[in-house]
Structures are given as structure tokens and as C-alpha cells.
TrEMBL record:
<dbReference type="InterPro" id="IPR000504">
    <property type="entry name" value="RRM_dom"/>
</dbReference>
<feature type="compositionally biased region" description="Basic and acidic residues">
    <location>
        <begin position="133"/>
        <end position="146"/>
    </location>
</feature>
<feature type="domain" description="RRM">
    <location>
        <begin position="7"/>
        <end position="85"/>
    </location>
</feature>
<dbReference type="InterPro" id="IPR012677">
    <property type="entry name" value="Nucleotide-bd_a/b_plait_sf"/>
</dbReference>
<protein>
    <recommendedName>
        <fullName>RRM domain-containing protein</fullName>
    </recommendedName>
</protein>
<dbReference type="Pfam" id="PF00076">
    <property type="entry name" value="RRM_1"/>
</dbReference>
<feature type="region of interest" description="Disordered">
    <location>
        <begin position="131"/>
        <end position="172"/>
    </location>
</feature>
<dbReference type="InterPro" id="IPR035979">
    <property type="entry name" value="RBD_domain_sf"/>
</dbReference>
<dbReference type="InterPro" id="IPR034168">
    <property type="entry name" value="PPIE_RRM"/>
</dbReference>
<keyword id="KW-0694">RNA-binding</keyword>
Length: 172
């Protein structure tokens, strides 16, 4: 049933002589009725003791529920509530309101989004690793340059002074 559950009423406790016409006449004072359906028992071809009445407006459905719940029709007390969505096998608790394939498109879209996200994460990780490798390379080059500078000129002031003294006064 593709209707708004707030406009569709479950009417239970029906006597077997009640017809869709009788139900329509009993519920029309509360507002415009879109549909009255009485599911049939497949073996007996009689209604199963309940029906669904669908109103055009949810306010009319609420008024009918308030006035007709526990009312008497053909000697039986009626139970009138908002109708629940049709349950079919499947879903998390074993029953669902829609077939398994109903969300196939959204499942496929979610899969594509997850794959795209994983691809972006992999690209991001590769970029980070490349940047870290570049930083390590620069640090290594800077260290190597410092080492070469140390080998070429002593940075120790005492060593520099000794080198100057030796160059000015060669040993005899």
C-alpha cells in the first residue's frame, strides 16, 4: 500500500455480512473517502473480518478513528486504528515494509561512494608519504652538506687558531 499511514485506517472486528458499501456509508460522515478495501480469504472468498478505509485528509481519518473506535456495527464492536505498512519477509527483524530489491539503487550508490572515498584516502596517503620522503631527502642532503662543510673547514675556534698559527709560523 503506497498510501500515507496517517490517512489509512485499520477497521477490525467486522461481522461477515458487512460489505465495502456498508463501511463506506458508516465512515463517510467524517470526510471524503479515497478507498475502502476488504481483503478476502482465498479459500472462502469472504472478507477476513477487517478492512482498510483510506481518507483524502489525515484530519478526516483522525476524526473517524476518534468516533468509530469501539463503536458498534452489525452487533460487533469495531477496532479502529491507523493502519501499519504492509510487512513482507526480509529486513533486520525478519520482516520489512519493502522488498529487498527496493533499495538496490541506494545500495549501489553507497558502494560507489565508499569506493570513491577509499580511492581518495589512498591518494591522500600516497601524497603524505611522498611529502615525507621529500622532507627526508632534503634533511639528508642538508646533513650531508653540513658534514662536507665540517670536513673542509674546522669550526672549532681552537683548531682554527692552531691552523692559523701553523700557517703563519711553519715548524722548524
Amino acid at each position: 500500500m503506497g498510501t500515507n499511514p496517517k490517512t489509512t485506517l485499520y477497521v477490525g472486528g467486522l461481522e461477515e455480512n458487512v460489505t465495502e458499501g456498508v463501511l463506506h456509508a458508516a465512515f463517510i460522515p467524517f470526510g471524503d473517502i479515497k478507498d475502502v478495501s476488504m481483503p478476502l480469504d482465498q479459500s472462502t472468498q469472504k472478507h477476513r473480518g477487517f478492512s482498510f478505509v483510506t481518507y483524502l485528509d489525515k484530519e478526516d481519518a483522525a476524526a473517524a478513528m476518534d468516533n468509530m473506535h469501539n463503536a458498534e456495527l452489525y452487533g460487533r464492536v469495531l477496532t479502529v486504528n491507523y493502519a501499519q505498512p504492509i510487512k513482507i519477509k526480509g529486513g533486520e527483524q525478519g520482516w520489512a515494509s519493502q522488498p529487498v530489491w527496493a533499495d538496490a539503487d541506494t545500495w549501489f550508490e553507497r558502494q560507489q561512494q565508499e569506493e570513491g572515498l577509499q580511492r581518495l584516502q589512498a591518494e591522500h596517503q600516497a601524497t603524505i608519504e611522498a611529502a615525507e620522503a621529500e622532507d627526508r631527502k632534503k634533511l639528508t642532503e642538508a646533513r650531508d652538506g653540513e658534514t662536507e662543510a665540517v670536513d673542509d673547514e674546522p669550526t672549532d675556534p681552537m683548531a682554527q687558531a692552531e691552523a692559523e698559527a701553523l700557517s703563519n709560523n711553519p715548524p722548524q
